[in-house]
Amino acid sequence: MEDIERIRERLENIRSVEPIIGSLRTISAGGWRLAVRRLEACEEYAENLAEILGVVLPQVPRNDLASGFVTLEPVPPRKPAMLVIASERGLCGSFNDIVLEGAERLIAEQQLESELVQIITLGSRAEAHFLRHGRPLLLAQPLPVTRVPSFEIVRHLAVTLQGLLSSDVVDAIDVVYSPYRAGITLPPVSRRWLPIDASALPRGSLRWPSPIIEGDKATLARRAVEEWAFVHLFRLVIESSASEHNARFRAMDAATSNLRRLIDELTLGYHVARQHAITMEMLDLVAGAGMLRGPRGRQRR
C-alpha cells in the first residue's frame, strides 16, 4: 500500500501544477499573437514611410542628408557598440542560450575588426549573462515583464543610443537579435542600425507633376530618416520579442504534453498497484482459509 500512497501523492502534485502550466501556455500564446500583430503593423508602417521617403529624398541633395546618424560613405567602425536583445524572464526553452551563445560569437568576430567593442543589453537575461562572465556593459536596459515592448519604450532607448553616437562614445551601433520564424528559434544575427547608409534608404524616382511639399524639404527628409531609424529599431526589438514568445509557447506546450503523459502513466501505475494489492489481499484470505480448513480435515479422519 505504500506504493499506492506514493503514486497518489505524485498524481496530486502533478495535477496541482497542470493548471499553472496551462495558464502560462495561454499567456505565452497571447503574447506571441500580440508580438506578431505588432510586427505586421510595424512592417506596414515602414512601407508607408518608405513611400514618403521615396517622394522626398529625390528632391533633396544627397549631401543635405549627411549627419551623425546618416553616412554618405560607410567606413569600418573603430569603436562600435553591440546591442544584444534577450528576454526579461525565463521559461522560454533554449531561447536565451541560443541568443547569448551566438552573441558571444558575433562580438568576438567584431573584436577582430575593431579597436574596442562595447556591449549594450536589452533584457535582464542578457545583462546577467555578461556580468556573470565579467564583461563590462556600456548600458543595460530592462524589458517589460508582462507585455510586449511598446514603441514609446523603444523610442526612449533609441534616443539614448543616438546620444551615445552623437557624443562620440561609440561610432556605430549594431543590433544582435534572433530573427522570427514560427516553430523554431534561429541563431542571432547582427544588423547595423546606426549610422544609416544613405544609399540604403528607399528612393523613388522623380514624379511629374512633382508632389507639393510645404516647408523645408531637407528638414522634412531628415525627420523622415530619423523616424525610419526608430521604426527599424522597433522592428528588430519586436521581431526578437516574437521569437521569445514563440519559444516560450513551445516550451509550455511541451511541458503541458509531458504533464498529461505523466498523469496517464501514473494513473495506469496506480490502477495496476491497486489491483496488485487487492490480489495479494485475496491470496492472503485464501491462504488463511486453507490454514483454517486444515485442522478440521485432520479431526474428521
Describe the structure.
The chain starts with a helix and ends with a helix. α1 runs antiparallel to α5 (217-300) and α4 crosses α5 (217-300). The longest helix is centred in the C-terminal third of the chain and has 84 residues, at 217-300. Strands 4-3-2-5-6 form a 5-stranded mixed beta sheet, with helices on both faces. Strands 1-7 form a two-stranded parallel sheet. By secondary structure, it is α/β, with parallel strands linked by helices. It contains 5 helices and 7 strands, in the order αββαβαβαβββα. β2 (80-85), α2 and β3 form a beta-alpha-beta unit. The model has no long low-confidence stretch (mean pLDDT 86). It has a single domain, classed as 3-Layer(aba) Sandwich (Pyruvate Kinase, Chain: A, domain 1), CATH 3.40.1380.10.
Characteristic key phrases:
alpha/beta, Pyruvate Kinase, Chain: A, domain 1, 5-stranded mixed β-sheet, two-stranded parallel sheet, 7 strands
In DSSP terms (H or I, runs of 4 or more residues), the helix count works out at: 5
What is the radius of gyration? 31 Å
The H-and-E topology, N to C, reads as HEEHEHEHEEEH
How many strands? 7
List the strand order in the largest sheet.
Answer: 4-3-2-5-6
The CATH topology annotation reads as Pyruvate Kinase, Chain: A, domain 1
Outline type: elongated
Fold blueprint:
Layout: H1 2-56, E1 70-71, E2 80-85, H2 95-111, E3 118-122, H3 124-132, E4 139-141, H4 151-166, E5 172-177, E6 189-194, E7 196-197, H5 217-300
Parallel strand pairs: 1-7, 2-3, 2-5, 3-4
Antiparallel strand pairs: 5-6
Helix pairs in contact: 1-5, 4-5
